[in-house]
What does this fold into?
Amino acid sequence: MGGRNLVRHAEGMTIDLGHHGDAEATEGLIDLAVNVRHAPMPEWLSAPLAESLTKLAAYPQEAEAVAAVSERHRRTPGEVLLTAGAAQAFVLLAQALRAARRPVVIHPQFTEPEAALRNAGHRVERVILEQHTGFRLEAALVPEDSDLVFVGNPTNPTSVLHPAEEIAKLARPGRVLVVDEAFSDTTYRPGFAGEPESLAGRRDLPGLVVVRSLTKTWGLAGLRIGYLLGPADLLPRLAAAQPLWPVSTPALAAAIACASPTAVAAERAIAASLADDRAHLLGRLGHVPKLTVAGAPASAFLSVRLDGADKIREELRRRGYAVRRGDTFPGLGVDWLRLAVRDTATTDAFIEVLSEVLEERP
It folds into this structure.
């Protein structure tokens, strides 16, 4: 996958847009490279999945899943398009919107949107957010005449959560604004009942398409289930680029279960617990010398800058820990690493090993 997505960076460095954290998480290593939650599957999810395996002789029927997702986000069924994961959603957008004249991707962020655009023949323009601003979005940075814009919120790999109103400034007639909210269900704000800064329920913004994933919180990366929320007059164009029966029967069962009030309540509780684990990780990292955390992390991972991070990553692997390299994200580089937020015991053990590695460096 990576070979076709090698892109020359402005500074002359080649970036592999097809590289992902699972390539780092070799069996036998403690996985801090993949930002998927590791936890047993709850019965309300495992039971429908098991039952769906008895129905595989029939072709998938998506109406119930579409209705469940639309009800969760207070949308009409015509504003929901189910996909085989968020990655397929990016491909559909790139293929269906080939007429876009000036597509822009806001980096650093998940690399699949740009890879999908390039593979569809688009000439991609980048807007690079800066470390000194905390990697925060400023709508004014995006060219006025861009007619297709991609932004992540919260952003992978920095975990920065942009204000919804700042992203909303990017919406306008004649432009498709794609907001990747694959990690929105991992965000938490005390006293706020829902997902802070999510635009999933906004129907008033012209051209807004929100990409969602069920992969991260519920550990369903292998099942491939996600969806798009967007204008009812746009989604049929994207659906036309899909193969027949694009989402499997087990994936549809997962979509129904994960859209339920039980699932949403569980997500909120998990997000609150995750916030505590993230605060613990940030506290421990605050005592690591010459380490800088990117922005204000708000999700299940964060990025850190360390001189010689590429060599530190290799030494951590030798000592049993997999972390995600940062040089494949435009806007970061070889001195960056992405770390998944894990439980406090895993964090404490990792920080001890990281400290040892740093103390032994010349």
In short: Residues 261-285 form the longest helix (25 residues). The longest strand covers residues 208-213. The chain has two domains: 2-39+272-360, 43-263. The chain has eleven helices and 14 strands.
